[in-house]
Amino acid sequence: MRMTIDINCDLGESTNPEHWESDALLMPYISSCNIACGGHAGNEASVRASVRNAYSHNLSIGAHPSYPDKENFGRRSIPIDDDSLRQTISEQITLVLRECESQQTKLSHVKPHGALYNDAAKDLSLALLVAEEVAKISPELKLMGLAESEMYEAAKKAGLEFIHEGFMDRNYQADKTLVPRTENNALHESLEDSLNQALSFALGSPIQTPDNVELQIIIDSICLHGDNPNALSMAKQLYQRLEEHDFKVRAPI
Question: Is the whole-model pTM more than 0.70?
Answer without folding.
Answer: yes
